[in-house]
Specification:
Largest sheet: none
Order of helices and strands: HHHH
Number of helices: 4
Number of domains: 2
Number of strands: 0
Strand content: under 5%
Distance between the termini: 57 Å
Radius of gyration: 30 Å
Helix content: over 70%
Shape: elongated
Amino acid sequence: MALSPSEWQILKELAERTAAEDPDYVQRLATFGSHEPCEAAVPARGRVLVPAVAAGALVVLGFVVTAVAVAGLEAAGGRRRASSGRFRR
């Protein structure tokens, strides 16, 4: 949705007032988004490697949790706790 001419005028006036009241803030806004620091900080190989390692760690964690749960059930004789019968039909 486009702005009307009166809305553009209001926006322009707000920008002028802000520039007059706080020039440092206007300077920070002017440089905001001018570069992507995360792109420069992480090499291309790292952008692929980090998510792959994280996904692998989650898969391994899932296997460990499953193994511990199965071992706990087997140690308890393979039986679950007796239910209270509240939800039986």
